[in-house]
Amino acid sequence: MPPPTDLLQGTLDMLILKAIAAEPQHGWAIAQRIELVSGNVLQIGQGSLYPALHRLEYKGWIRAQWGASENNRRARFYSLTAAGRKHLEAELDNWVRLTGAINLVLESV
Amino acid sequence: MLGEWLSRIRFFFAGRSRAEVDDEIQFHIERQVETYLAAGMSPAEARRQAAICFGGRERAREQCREQRPSWSIESLWRDIRYGVRGLLRSPGFTAVAVLTLALAIGANSTIFSLLSQALLRALPVQDPDQLVVLSFAGDAPGHHHSEGGNTPGHQHEFSYPMYRDLRDRNSVLSGLIASAAVGVGAVWNNRAEPVLAEMVTGNYFDTLGVRPAVGRLFVSGDETADGANPLAVLNFDYWKSHLAEAQVEGKTLLINGTPFTILGVTAPGFHSVVFGRLPDVYVPMTMQRTVQPEWNYLADRKAYWINLTGRLRPGMKRTQAEASINQLYLAVRRTEIPLLVDQTPKDLQQFIDKAHLNLEAGASGFSPFREDARLPLTIMMGMALLVVGMAVVNVASLLLVRAATRVREFSMRYALGATSGQILRQLLTEGLLLGMLGAAAGLLLAPPALNALIHWMSGTTEGRVPFSGSLDWRVMGFTIAATLAASLVFSLAPAVQLWNPRLAEALKQQTDSGRGSSLRFRRTCVALQIGFSLLLIVGAGLFVRTIQNLHNVDPGFATDHVLAFTLDPQMAGYMPATVNAVEQRVIDAVAALPGVRGVAATNDADLRGDDREGDVLVDQDSNHPRPEDKEFDIELPWVSNGYLQTLGVPLVAGRYFTAADTATSQKVAIVNESFVRHYFPSNSAALGHHVCRPHRAATDAVIVGVVKDVKHSSLREPAIATEYTLFLQAEHPGGLMFYVRTWQAPQAAANSVRAAIANIDTKLIVGDLSTLDDQIEDNLLSERTVALLAGTFGGLATLLAGIGLYGILAYSTAQRTREIGIRMALGAKRGAVVRLILRDVLILAGWAVAVTIPVTILVTRAVRSQLFGVSAADPVVYAAGILLIGLVAVTAGLIPSRRAATVDPARALRTE
User: Does A43 contact chain B (CB < 8 Å)?
Assistant: First the structure.
């Protein structure tokens, strides 16, 4: 059973990978970042974030390490692996192609 | 890529501990609280909002766990723990179910192991899949020496010259080998023993890829010329058991009095290219005349005596090779035409036209007895599978009964949110648990059962059987597959009842009243059990009757009080010219012993499956036979002059052989009534006529007596036309079977017989010393084994039917307690209640029997060839089977129905 999400299937994974592409982040920060950057349009169901992180970790795209958070507390930081980076690039390419195609169709009418 | 896998593996094993997940979620919520506090909320409100925002914490935790790859294993583990607890809660049920399965699976694995070893297992040689077994179709006039295993169009014995032609001139085989077995006398450390020698070609071990354990094995250079290679290789088992692993390389082993130099010992596990042949020593083919002095086969194109096996060149297809080598085969056959005598031009044409060389897949090797064993083994396997079928029905009905009492439990689980899939998985897990416990117990039972069976099959003589008591991968695989299939069937049976029951209704009901589909299912189980067991009991009855009939066959002479042994002076190195004299001395010496009534000797042992057949000419010139007499084969034993009197074969005309018939007097013959019927109008008309073999003028003998027909080859086969002649007057000498008729128990004479023979010459080897009755028993081995196993399976079937019927009837009767209570409250007598329930059972049993009988008749027709003196539709066997199964059904029904009838009606009604 896939976790309930309002996002298109698979896009949550891509958003998470993108959110930690620049630097390692902990779960809360990832959710915050996606919400902020999207101008609060994309609300990550908190309950679906962690299963997604576990899934990505199993797939070997991200790795997790305990570290100190910005308020000096123990938090789990997620960072991209090489495989994850490659996967993200492929996903982004796909996304650009897909949205471009959809836009073309929508604009032509 | 590697990193990805490493992380997966790490994740799989370590997973993420529950505490870590908790910490992570805790951190997330606290961070959210901080944010809300910063935004100006009160601490309580911030905490509340953060919790709402996060959603179900437990759910998130669960979902995190479900992402783990080990999740499915964890839930399986939970199912197993739950199943084990359930089974432990009802130990009686568990014990009966596991025991039922263990017996069935154990029987199944035991029989399958025999079947696998006899029919499926490959020879322990290199690349057995490349091996091909050679056989031919077409006429082959000449001398045939066969151990069995031939079928029309597939004769497996070739001549040595033909072998050499095929070996040296073919282009499709990387190697072609030949072998033949013969009993010889071996002397090691001054101890003389009868052993089995295999004559093999020089390339035998190389072609098979068999390595030495000690020294070296034969090479092509060890097969040069007639009598020129007195070399021996020992079999590992013989070396170990008889020579105590002595240093043997270069030492001398006396075989039939001739010194052979031992080259080495074969690797353990190897016996022969012919499955079932267990030689002790191997000698080069060129030593044939030493190990088998009465025959001279090597140069004879008309002596058919060696089994051929080839190894295909790599990449060569069998059909392709067969086409190619047939050209060669026919070419060689054409060169053999001038050797044929007394053949019409048509015969000669057919000698080529009807000839064909077969190359058959030979991974498991040629076997003289495999074809004979195939049907009995298949029958046994079928019976074992029926027992498994019964066990499955049994356990299914037990599970069904158990499931009925668990309707509330399962309804509760549905109510708590379990899906149908989860319920099904639980049922399957429980079923597989039972199945695996049963299989494990069955596999523990199988090796001892197999060993006992093998021990039993080796019989009373020291005969060895080519079976081992260990279970190989094939048996394991088969057992696991059978267990899985069986478990699947019986664990799904209760699902019929439990899968998605009407929840509310089931919860309201105190008990399942046994209506509708589940009742039908239960009745089906009862009917199937009765059907299966009837089939097995009838099968057992037929085979037990067969062995009884065989034991009651009158062979025509008394077989009791007869001690039998073999003796061949040539095994002790006697020259052919002196053999007959020694044998006569043995007869005279044993006859003079106290307590001996008479001594008989023959070269054609009775009731052991031996035959010496050939065609004869009556009152004709041996060199110019009439063609029409050629096709009638008769039995041609060479006997001692006291043979017929000692065995007690009644004389009907003329006279017996006497001491006056000697090696130099007129050659005489005695024929039996079947012989007379074929050639003469009456018994007395046969006297004085001459009988000889075609082209063997020296065999001409005059008929001096006629005796009654007696059984010869086996108890099964009817007597055939026979001409007895004297071994003293025979063409050439050979080993004999001696029969000593005693006044007392024959075994008691064994030691004095041995002593008397040792007194003549200590080198003489007394072989196969046993009673004639024991030898006959050994010859009935196949029938006895089938009868024993069939009887066991029949008994097992009856037992299983009893348990299964009792379980299911006890349950369904208990379900009817209220109905019975009402009936009794309304005035029904106890007897009437018992009758009511029994009538139900018997009607059902009647239906099951009526359906099963035609099936049984159809199935048993397939085993007709294995029966003796009993029809496949024997009414007595069927009646007894039906009676037995009826008795079991009534007994199984009587106990619960009487219990039901003793229930106090008032109480029965109140408990509802």
Answer: no
pLDDT, tens only, B439-468: 999 999 999 999 988 888 876 555 567 788
Given a contact cutoff of 8 angstroms between Cβ atoms, the answer to whether B797 and B386 are in contact is yes
Q: Is residue B7 a contact partner of residue A65, using CB atoms and an 8 Å limit? A: no
Strand duo B736-742 + B596-602: pairing: antiparallel
Element (H, E) at B100: helix B91-115
- Which of A3, A58, A69 is opposite residue B63, by nearest beta carbon? A3
CA distance B463 to B183: 13
Q: For chain B, what are the domain ranges?
A: 2-69, 128-361, 371-551+781-910, 562-777
Task: Please state, in angstroms and as integers, the Cα–Cα distance from residue B77 to each residue in B16, B71, B423, B425, B483, following that order.
Answer: 18, 10, 15, 12, 20
CATH number assigned to the domain comprising residue A71: 1.10.10.10
- CA B196 and chain centroid, separation: 23
Q: Which is nearest to B360 in space by CA: B623, B136, B103?
A: B136
- Residues of chain A found within 8 Å of residue B31, distances taken between Cβ atoms: 28, 69, 71, 75
> Per the CB < 8 Å rule, is B64 touching A50?
yes
Residue B405: which residues within 8 A CB-CB, separation 6 or more?
B512
Question: Which residues of chain A lie closer than 8 angstroms to B60, CB-CB?
Answer: 46-47, 50-51
State the Cα–Cα distance between residues A30 and A57, nearest whole angstrom: 15
Euclidean distance between the first and final Cα of chain A, in Å? 37
For residue range A3-61, list pLDDT tens digits in order.
344 456 578 888 888 888 888 888 888 888 888 888 877 777 666 788 888 888 888 88
B27 vs A contacts (CB less than 8 Å): 26-28, 69, 73-76
Q: Which residue has the higher pLDDT, B173 or A33?
A: B173
Token pair recorded at residue B642: 């006291």
Residue A69 structural domain = 11-108
On whether ipTM exceeds 0.85, the answer is: no
| Pick from B8, B16, B55: CB nearest A54 | B16
CB-based contact, A28 to chain B, within 8 Å: yes
pTM over the 0.90 mark = no
CA distances from B78 to B11, B71, B73 (A): 20, 11, 9
DSSP β-bridge partners for residue B607 = none
On whether residue A50 sits in a domain, the answer given is yes
B24 vs A contacts (CB less than 8 Å): 27, 50, 75-76
Do B670 and B705 meet the contact criterion of CB atoms below 8 Å apart? yes
Using the beta-carbon criterion (under 8 Å), do B7 and A82 form an inter-chain contact? Answer: no
